Amino acid sequence: STQKLWGGRFTETVAKYVDEFGASIGFDQLLAAEDITGSLAHVKMLKKTGILPAEDVDQIVAGLETLEKRLQAGQLEFSTVNEDIHMNIEALLTAEIGPVAGKLHTARSRNDQVATDFHLYLKHQLPKILARLQALEEVLVEKAAANVTTVMPGYTHLQHAQPISYAHYLLAYYQMFRRDIERFKFNIQHTDISPLGAAALAGTTFPIDREYSAQLLGFSQVYHNSLDAVSDRDFVLEFLSNAAILMMHLSRFCEELVSWSSYEFNYISLSDQFSTGSSIMPQKKNPDMAELIRGKAGRVYGNLMGLLTVMKAIPLAYNKDLQEDKEGAFDTVTTVLTSLHVFTGMLATLTVNKAQMAHATTNDFSNATELADYLANKGMPFREAHAIVGKLVLEGIQKHRPLQDIPLSEFQEISPLIEADVYHDLDAKVAVERRHSLGGTGFDQIRQELKRAQAQLAKD
Ligand code: ARG
């Protein structure tokens, strides 16, 4: 490992295992396309400003474009001798066009170069994630539209609480993913800033035009402090935080898919296409994909914690610690994209066991609030009504008799306020339908929310 691009002031060479330890080419070759794009913009800026003669720039541009084509054809070979993607590309360019390649690095450093590459990379990935989220939202809305009147138990503490519509449940997730979309969109703003031209840390004496290179790269802004430009990884941390929150949402949903597809719940059934069998138990159909997405949430949290910890004590400006910023982010992009893809397919193909959901609301006393509300509506203080209904529930549990099976005569002994219309209110479907309050589970409320969601999706 002689012939380092930076070898001038060195008399001893670095041992191979040390070189390998310091090298990032193993993973940052993922930035090859961005690195070439960044170099093209930089060198075109050097031409426009007259910093480099046009003939030199034209040769460099032609060389970079050749490398670009070879990259696309899978023909570029990288080596740890050249440490990272930036020096690998420069070495390949030198092999292609000779010593004039050495002029490319005028008024630039790997520090602003790597930051530029990473901004470009994330700027390209965020729209892919947004597109997958949009596809998921569309499936959620479709499924909700088909299930407005599908009644099921709503839970608190995993105990039957009050009946709700399955569509209302689905639209709760619609709202969560909606906020995820907003967060990733905001993330684009902090990613869409050009660090190029910050050079090593302090700017440069060359008369560069940072706005021009930013414009060529499609960045809408430039960093206004060179120290910040080369050491800021907030945009990556924001991405990882947003990804962690998104994975948390997917994981909660998956937790419910896993339990709801169990024999005990039997509310839903996952398609065979998204399930796996057992190598020993012939009857098994396992919700592996839902479990795996739930597990991958942990992996993404780990990537967030990893980078937060790397960043917490790095003095300004660039330090080699920053090379640890990439793998977790790359891994998170892949994890989020694949998890969203699989999850959306799983959701689109699952079947809903409406009869079982409805059945679960019939003997579970989840209409107890209805009876208390009924009495309160007739003028009884709610606290008193609560106590009376509580006693009826206790008795009902002992006698295995749900509230709607109590004869009117017995009801009237308890309170003369109760009349025959009570049975209407005790019906689970009616209990859902009547929850007209804004954001409630009432069928009309859900229909309004569906319209709002459909309009939002059409706008995005
Ligand atoms: N491979 C390095 C990274 O990923 C590029 C920047 C290196 N700069 C330096 N002065 N060592 O961060």
UniProtKB/TrEMBL annotation:
<protein>
    <recommendedName>
        <fullName>Argininosuccinate lyase</fullName>
        <ecNumber>4.3.2.1</ecNumber>
    </recommendedName>
</protein>
<dbReference type="InterPro" id="IPR029419">
    <property type="entry name" value="Arg_succ_lyase_C"/>
</dbReference>
<dbReference type="Pfam" id="PF14698">
    <property type="entry name" value="ASL_C2"/>
</dbReference>
<keyword id="KW-0963">Cytoplasm</keyword>
<dbReference type="InterPro" id="IPR020557">
    <property type="entry name" value="Fumarate_lyase_CS"/>
</dbReference>
<keyword id="KW-0055">Arginine biosynthesis</keyword>
<dbReference type="InterPro" id="IPR009049">
    <property type="entry name" value="Argininosuccinate_lyase"/>
</dbReference>
<feature type="domain" description="Argininosuccinate lyase C-terminal">
    <location>
        <begin position="365"/>
        <end position="433"/>
    </location>
</feature>
<dbReference type="InterPro" id="IPR024083">
    <property type="entry name" value="Fumarase/histidase_N"/>
</dbReference>
<dbReference type="InterPro" id="IPR000362">
    <property type="entry name" value="Fumarate_lyase_fam"/>
</dbReference>
<feature type="domain" description="Fumarate lyase N-terminal">
    <location>
        <begin position="8"/>
        <end position="302"/>
    </location>
</feature>
<comment type="similarity">
    <text>Belongs to the lyase 1 family. Argininosuccinate lyase subfamily.</text>
</comment>
<dbReference type="Pfam" id="PF00206">
    <property type="entry name" value="Lyase_1"/>
</dbReference>
<comment type="pathway">
    <text>Amino-acid biosynthesis; L-arginine biosynthesis; L-arginine from L-ornithine and carbamoyl phosphate: step 3/3.</text>
</comment>
<dbReference type="InterPro" id="IPR022761">
    <property type="entry name" value="Fumarate_lyase_N"/>
</dbReference>
<keyword id="KW-0456">Lyase</keyword>
<dbReference type="InterPro" id="IPR008948">
    <property type="entry name" value="L-Aspartase-like"/>
</dbReference>
<dbReference type="GO" id="GO:0004056">
    <property type="term" value="F:argininosuccinate lyase activity"/>
</dbReference>
<keyword id="KW-0028">Amino-acid biosynthesis</keyword>
